[in-house]
Specification:
mainly alpha; disordered C terminus; about 65% helix
């Protein structure tokens, strides 16, 4: 009977080791968003803890300071999980093959994983296993060390755009404020350059945040800044400029809008967010007509030239907004974004079925 248990221990150890290496490869090496069960469990467990610590009754600044630690600690906890699972996997293998006690198996595995050399097995085959465990331990450490520069490089590029937007669209950023400021500064024609700049920003964010999903949870240095609300402000500004503002139509604004909603959709795909990939122009959105009319009044008071047919302008704006409304609110919820007009200030109004590091097989349906 003991022989059967030792054989099962070896099988379990090999299975655990393969799962751990697979998780590391999926999380760090594979250049696409693939769900890893181990990474998902680690981040879900930490998320539950952080949501308990960052209570809604706290001021947002205090909650932001707590939530800012979520992603960095998640990376450390993931590495700790990989190393712990590797240690247990080899401990099972050594116990099953070397006929040693559990304590001896633990000592050999720990000594090998961290290359201490304080415990050594007797048999040549087990010595070979020691070498492989030491190599895997170094591999996992090196993997995480090389992973961090990629994360912070992408984070830095993302935050340059977010910080620069505060000058153009206020704090918190809002598309209406952006159009008003450009008009008052007599720079409304320079919006073309903004659409070009943010088209590139959306493409960069889509590539980095879909291949490195943990980036979604890295918070901006300023508590009232967020990459999600910044994206929403730009998309709303572009939608308003093509639907409401009476200036020459700029095709680049349309391109920026398409780049934006495709970017947000592909990022939310990883989290299993349900949305309609081909919504109707008259599908409901989270912006009420009264809010749109208030924005019209604000822009008119600033002297911004507006189109005469406000009903047609509302229909055109809603037709653009529906393409990104659901995913924008979902990301605001998932990332606990700071309050901002027309995005995170209403993100709780809809039920968003999203799972952190979730299943990609969820069906797509409109959350409207």
């Amino acid at each position: 009977m003991l022989v059967v248990f030792r054989v099962l221990a070896v099988i379990a150890g090999v299975t655990m080791l393969v799962a751990t290496l697979g998780s590391a490869i999926k999380t760090v090496i594979l250049p696409r968003a693939v769900v890893s069960t181990i990474t998902r469990v680690v981040f879900l467990s930490l998320r539950g803890l952080f949501l308990l610590l960052a209570r809604p009754s706290m001021s947002f600044e205090r909650r932001d300071r707590i939530l800012a630690m979520y992603a960095p600690l998640g990376l450390i906890a993931t590495l700790a999980a990989w190393l712990s699972l590797t240690l247990v996997a080899y401990m099972l293998i050594f116990w099953g093959l070397d006929l040693v006690s559990w304590r001896e198996a633990f000592e050999i595995s720990g000594s090998s994983l961290f290359t201490l050399g304080s415990a050594r097995p007797e048999h040549l085959g087990s010595v070979a296993l020691v070498f492989t465990e030491a190599a895997i331990g170094l591999f996992l450490l090196a993997l995480m060390i090389t992973y961090l520069p990629s994360i912070y490089s992408s984070f830095s590029r993302r935050e340059l755009g977010v910080t620069a937007l505060a000058v153009r669209a206020g704090e918190p950023a809002w598309g209406v404020t952006m159009i008003e400021r450009f008009w008052r500064l007599e720079r409304i024609g320079m919006l073309h350059d903004v659409w070009v700049e943010w088209e590139r920003w959306f493409v960069d964010v889509e590539e980095s945040h879909s291949s490195l999903p943990v980036l979604c949870f890295f918070r901006s240095p300023q508590p009232d800044h967020s990459w999600v609300t910044a994206a929403g402000a730009i998309l709303d500004a572009a939608a308003l400029s093509v639907s409401l503002v009476d200036i020459d139509h700029d095709v680049q604004a349309d391109i920026c809008l398409r780049a934006g909603y495709l970017s947000l959709r592909r990022i939310t795909d990883f989290f299993g967010v349900a949305y309609d990939p081909d919504p109707r122009a008259d599908d409901p959105i989270s912006i009420r007509r009264e809010e749109f009319d208030a924005a019209v009044h604000q822009l008119a008071e600033a002297g911004v030239p507006l189109k005469a047919d406000l009903e047609a302008a509302w229909v055109a704006f809603a037709g653009w907004r529906v393409t990104y409304d659901t995913v924008l609110l979902a990301l605001s919820n998932i990332t606990s974004a700071p309050p901002a007009p027309w995005s995170s200030d209403r993100s709780g109004e809809r039920t968003v079925h999203a799972r952190v590091f979730g299943d990609l097989r969820g069906s797509r349906r409109s959350a409207g």
